[in-house]
From TrEMBL, chain A:
<dbReference type="GO" id="GO:0007165">
    <property type="term" value="P:signal transduction"/>
</dbReference>
<protein>
    <submittedName>
        <fullName>Purine-binding chemotaxis protein CheW</fullName>
    </submittedName>
</protein>
<dbReference type="GO" id="GO:0005829">
    <property type="term" value="C:cytosol"/>
</dbReference>
<dbReference type="InterPro" id="IPR039315">
    <property type="entry name" value="CheW"/>
</dbReference>
<dbReference type="InterPro" id="IPR002545">
    <property type="entry name" value="CheW-lke_dom"/>
</dbReference>
<feature type="region of interest" description="Disordered">
    <location>
        <begin position="1"/>
        <end position="39"/>
    </location>
</feature>
<feature type="compositionally biased region" description="Basic and acidic residues">
    <location>
        <begin position="1"/>
        <end position="11"/>
    </location>
</feature>
<dbReference type="GO" id="GO:0006935">
    <property type="term" value="P:chemotaxis"/>
</dbReference>
<dbReference type="InterPro" id="IPR036061">
    <property type="entry name" value="CheW-like_dom_sf"/>
</dbReference>
TrEMBL record, chain B:
<dbReference type="InterPro" id="IPR036641">
    <property type="entry name" value="HPT_dom_sf"/>
</dbReference>
<dbReference type="InterPro" id="IPR051315">
    <property type="entry name" value="Bact_Chemotaxis_CheA"/>
</dbReference>
<keyword id="KW-0597">Phosphoprotein</keyword>
<dbReference type="GO" id="GO:0006935">
    <property type="term" value="P:chemotaxis"/>
</dbReference>
<dbReference type="InterPro" id="IPR005467">
    <property type="entry name" value="His_kinase_dom"/>
</dbReference>
<dbReference type="InterPro" id="IPR008207">
    <property type="entry name" value="Sig_transdc_His_kin_Hpt_dom"/>
</dbReference>
<dbReference type="Pfam" id="PF01627">
    <property type="entry name" value="Hpt"/>
</dbReference>
<dbReference type="Pfam" id="PF02518">
    <property type="entry name" value="HATPase_c"/>
</dbReference>
<dbReference type="InterPro" id="IPR036097">
    <property type="entry name" value="HisK_dim/P_sf"/>
</dbReference>
Length: 199, 544
């Protein structure tokens, strides 16, 4: 019950923050809310993703793992933490770690499209089991509703990937788009949490 | 503020009234099922506690009556006295009398104890076999019963923790509003926010005050502990307690409990010598152990002093050299205070030669960690043959602490005042490159100095802690911190003010990073990192 309330506040607040610089995120979240409100309406099992770009590829996170989307607030760098930790930010009184997933996963950065404002980034606030983290993305995240059947949960290549790196939950294919669905609960491995400590 | 005595009295009354209510309930229950041993045991226990508490605080009438009742119930429990109607009547009267006595503590009026009732009690207690003695009728004490509720409530520490956290959040927002109102320069807003400031400050101290307990609650457990350990060790030890009235945050005391126990055990097993050895050394046969507490500004100092054999500095040095904690030539010139700090190294005591000879240090690193975790300090003073003192400096409250704010590479940092010794400004020429570090003469003491920007921000492979050219500007602001009896100067870019901050612990996954004790939000809404002095010192030692 409590969690639900929080989520709602988070979403509302995210809209308020985003509406200034860019309306698109708002629309994304508004449609996201509709999707949440009527899951039973759809006959087949649907999944709702927040989709964003890392490098040249599209990635998705299940909406129930995303607490809010906001324009990245001022981030305070924390010396002697791994490079992919950009620092900490004050998001509505909570101090959370801000991460760059491109650096975390070793994804090659690509130049931005011309219509993207290079000075604004967005932060997805993600609630993993034990912690909240912020993930920086450069373009406005979008919302996408798709059938569960469109997700290939066990593509063969996943078996080739080191088991400790298994943060990929599946691959979604919609209208010629390929979206890598991430399991945010596995985004930080125990090793990395230990690595934080050794510094 | 109320006197301690008044407070004890109130606590006693509240507890006693609670016992009184419970006794009434239990004895009514017992009347219905006189065979219930559990109820009897409970009544017995309560009367016993009441007797002991009353006696301790000096209400002898209450303890006398409780004693008589306790004896009576003891007889009933042992089946030497039957729980007959007559007896029940007397017992009810006795409990009513207790109630009257307890309630009369706070009023001027003295309760006249009805001698008949006392006689009745004595009769059922003493002359159990002599059934011919008649129990006399007693005039009822309380014809008109007043129902009263206690003035004290019990509260879970968890609830107070929650309250404290909320106050912390409130203070952060208050500071933000205060700084906004200054920026906006609106008189009305300024007035409201300064009022808000006063109220929240009051609130903060009230909540902190509600969490305070007397150190005596912990100290008073030690006489028994000391007795047990010393008799097991076949030693004679006199324990002296002082400063039991000093107040400290309940959670801090909780964390210190094990450490203090550890230190006391160490002092008896390794510090104080056996009686025959003491006699040889010309000391009194019985060792003396002093456990004292006193307030010092915003902290509480707990001192544990023994008059035992003291710490053998030479032995500690030898062991430290053997364990490669320090080079032999350096060890020779180390001041004693720094030598003692080796005792806090993890596993130091495991070295056999140390435990056998100097004997100190069993798990002292655990003690140190506990003290670090609450932001306290510990130091040792010792004289060979004369004894050893452990001096613990603890904050009175966890959540709010005084801190020094500064800036490095445009990031705000804070260091809790409990770790800062002083602040100096030195000219670059007063810093000297010695070995691979910088040193400076500060008030006649040679102190190692480190440029924090270099330590925190330079890539580790290119870090040059002994290179003066890395410094910016001519005059260097240096904060002297002290940890584990060692001083270290931290060069910062800009030094700001001293301020009370509310430290928010870092949330997962960042909470595993040792370097930061937490964060705090400044009035401007900016995040300020709180440096953990023990971790910074260790990091520096490792990188040097």
């Amino acid at each position: 019950m409590k969690e639900k309330t929080n989520k709602k506040e988070g979403t509302d607040a995210a809209e308020a923050t985003v509406s200034g610089p860019d309306k698109a995120a708002e629309t994304a979240l508004a449609s996201a809310k509709e999707g949440q409100a009527s899951p039973e309406a759809a006959k087949e099992e649907m999944i709702h993703l927040i989709v964003f770009k890392l490098g040249a590829e599209e990635y998705g996170i299940k909406i129930d793992q995303v607490k809010e989307v906001t324009v990245t607030p001022s981030v305070t760098r924390m010396p002697r933490t791994p490079d992919f930790i950009k620092g900490v930010a004050n998001i509505r009184g909570d101090i959370i770690a801000i991460m760059n997933l491109e650096e975390r996963f070793g994804i090659r950065s690509v130049p931005l499209a011309n219509d993207v404002n290079p000075h604004i980034t967005y932060t997805l606030v993600i609630e993993a089991k034990e912690y909240s983290i912020g993930v920086i993305v450069r373009e406005v995240p979008q919302s996408l509703n798709l059938s569960m059947t469109k997700i290939d949960k066990t593509p063969s290549f996943l078996q080739d990937i080191n088991i400790h790196e298994n943060y990929i939950e599946g691959i979604a294919k919609v209208n010629n788009r390929l979206i890598i669905v991430l399991d945010m609960y596995k985004i930080l491995t125990q090793d990395e949490i230990r690595e934080l400590k050794s510094n | 503020m109320k006197s301690r005595e008044q407070e004890y009295k109130e606590i006693f009354i509240a507890e006693a009234l609670e016992y009184f209510d419970a006794l009434n309930r239990l004895i009514s229950e017992l009347e219905k099922k006189p065979q219930d041993d559990q109820v009897l045991a409970e009544i017995f226990r309560m009367l016993h506690n009441l007797k002991a508490n009353a006696k301790a605080i000096g209400y002898l009438q209450i303890s006398d009556v409780s004693h008589k009742l306790e004896t009576a119930f003891g007889l009933i429990r042992n089946k030497e006295l039957s729980f007959s109607d007559e007896v029940v009547g007397v017992l009810f009267d006795g409990i009513d009398l207790l109630g009257e006595l307890i309630k009369s503590i706070d009023s001027e009026q003295q309760v006249e104890i009805d001698p008949v009732l006392i006689r009745n009690l004595d009769i059922i207690v003493d002359s159990l076999s002599d059934s011919t003695v008649e129990l006399a009728k007693v005039q009822k004490f309380s014809t008109s019963r007043n129902l009263t509720l206690s003035d004290l409530i019990y509260i879970q520490v968890k609830k107070l923790d929650h309250l404290m956290n909320l106050v912390g959040e409130l203070i952060i927002d208050r500071d933000r509003i205060l700084s906004l109102s200054r920026e906006l320069d609106n008189d009305e807003l300024k007035m409201v926010s300064s009022h808000l400031y006063r109220i929240t400050e009051d609130l903060q101290y009230s909540v902190m005050d509600a969490r305070l307990v007397s150190i005596g609650t912990l100290f008073n457990k030690f006489p028994r502990v000391v007795r047990d350990i010393s008799s097991a060790e076949k030693k004679e030890v006199n324990l002296e307690l002082s400063g039991q009235d000093i107040q400290i945050d309940r959670n801090i005391l909780q964390i210190m409990t094990d450490s203090l126990l550890h230190l006391v055990r160490n002092a008896i097993t390794h510090g104080i010598e056996k009686p025959e050895l003491r006699a040889k050394a010309g000391k009194p046969k019985a060792g003396s152990l002093q456990l004292s507490a006193r307030s010092d500004r915003e902290s509480v100092i707990i001192t544990l002093t023994d008059d035992g054999k003291g710490i053998d500095v030479a032995k500690v040095k030898k062991a430290a050299v053997e364990r490669h904690l320090v080079a032999a030539d350096v060890a020779d010139s180390l001041p004693d205070s720094e030598v003692y700090s080796f005792l806090f190294e993890p596993g130091f005591s495991l070295a056999k030669e140390v435990t056998e000879f100097s004997g100190r240090g069993v798990g002292l690193d655990v003690v140190k960690n506990a003290i670090d975790s609450i932001g306290g300090r510990i130091r040792i003073e010792s004289e060979k043959g004369k004894g050893t003192s452990f001096i613990l400096q603890l904050p009175t409250s966890i959540a709010v602490k005084g801190a020094l704010l500064f800036e490095i590479d445009s990031i705000f940092y804070a260091i809790p005042l409990i770790h800062t010794d002083s602040v100096v400004a030195l000219d670059k020429d007063e810093l000297h490159e010695v070995g691979e570090v910088l040193v400076a003469d500060i008030k006649g003491e040679t102190v190692t100095v480190v440029y924090l920007d270099e330590l925190l921000n330079m890539e580790e492979s290119q870090m040059r802690l002994g290179d003066k050219t890395r410094l910016k500007g001519q005059v260097q602001n240096i904060i002297i911190v002290s940890y584990n009896n060692r001083k270290l100067g931290l060069i910062v870019d800009k030094l700001y003010r001293q301020q009370d901050i509310v430290v928010k612990p870092l949330s997962k996954p960042l909470d595993s990073i040792d370097l930061y004790g937490g964060v705090t939000l400044l009035g401007t809404g900016k995040v300020c990192l709180v440096l953990d002095v023990p971790a910074i010192t260790k990091y520096f030692v490792n990188k040097r």
